[in-house]
Prior knowledge:
Shape: elongated
Distance between the termini: 35 Å
Number of strands: 0
Structural class: mainly alpha
Order of helices and strands: HHH
Radius of gyration: 15 Å
Number of helices: 3
Amino acid sequence: MTDLPPYASGPAPTASLLQRARRPSVAELAGIPWLHGLDANERAVAVDDLKVVSVATGELLCRVGRPPTFWFGVIVGLLKMSHDTALGV
């Protein structure tokens, strides 16, 4: 059984994702398969910008109408994306 990250089964935290973000550990960096496929310069840029955050079940990551500022990589769990109409359908 996989250990769930903090917040995975509790209420959504009040701090924003950005406020809860932290630098990845050496072990976490070693566990990112695509990172090793980058050349040294690309890897340095990616590592410098990587952030790790735990997200609560049901917590929103992005919303329609907001410009994209991040991309998300899932380490543990499942990410569900959906696009509803203005009527909620």
